[in-house]
Amino acid sequence: MKLVLNFSIFLLAFFSFSNKSLSLTDYQIKRFCAKEKRVSLCIKNLQEKRSDLQKGKLIEIPVTPYKR
Fold this sequence. Notes:
Blueprint: H1 2-16, H2 26-33, H3 39-55
């Protein structure tokens, strides 16, 4: 019984943490870029990064510090 329980928990964890990446939708990109100075350039860059991510290429993700 314990073996079956451990095996089922292993399978659940294995299939729930799959190797999928979620990309931003067009609406999320527009909402994010509304704060930027050059909106059209921001949208174009994020759409290109989304395309590269969906093709399986590596992308660079900038980290912005949190300001209080």
